[in-house]
């Protein structure tokens, strides 16, 4: 189905990236499975990969962290069962990670081994 048709159909129903469902759009020949909405926490990227594998096509993932090989902080936090208090701050930090290749974070709680693009800072004020 054409992406434009899907976008126009869903547009009035969309609310927030944290609430919207995963949407994957495939071309008529099944060559491409495009993760259109909710790529990370909604599971759109994973769904696109699954659909592409079933159809023998290719997943099209456009989220910057995936394209650039950076850690998706929202998925990382979710995998560790962490709660993100300030979603807007997470978006800003993710932007820094994508644009600069790494970020430094502070946590009052011990964390397991960190991904290569995340370092920890002892002083929360820095």
Describe the structure.
By secondary structure, this protein is an alpha/beta fold. The chain folds into two domains: 3-62, Rossmann fold, CATH 3.40.50.11220; 71-120, no CATH class. The protein has five helices and five strands, in the order H-E-E-H-E-H-H-H-E-E. A three-stranded mixed beta sheet has the order 1-2-3. Strand 2 (32-37), helix 2 and strand 3 (58-60) form a beta-alpha-beta unit. The chain starts with a helix and ends in a 6-residue tail after the last strand.
Mean pLDDT: 93
Strand order of the largest sheet: 1-2-3
Q: Characterize the overall form.
A: elongated
Proportion of helical residues: 25-40%
CATH class of the largest domain: Alpha Beta
Encode the helix/strand succession as letters. HEEHEHHHEE
Q: Could you please say which CATH topology of the largest domain applies here?
A: Rossmann fold
Cα end-to-end separation: 49 Å
Radius of gyration: 17 Å
Number of domains: 2
Give the total of beta strands: 5
User: Main sheet, how many strands, which sense, barrel?
Assistant: 3 strands, mixed
Proportion in β-strands: 15-25%
Q: Helices and strands: which structural class?
A: alpha/beta
Task: Please outline what is shown here.
The chain is an alpha/beta fold.
Annotation keywords:
126 residues, alpha/beta, Rossmann fold, elongated
In terms of topology, how is this protein built?
Elements: H1 3-10, E1 23-26, E2 32-37, H2 44-55, E3 58-60, H3 64-68, H4 73-79, H5 87-100, E4 103-105, E5 118-120
Parallel strand pairs: 2-3, 4-5
Antiparallel strand pairs: 1-2
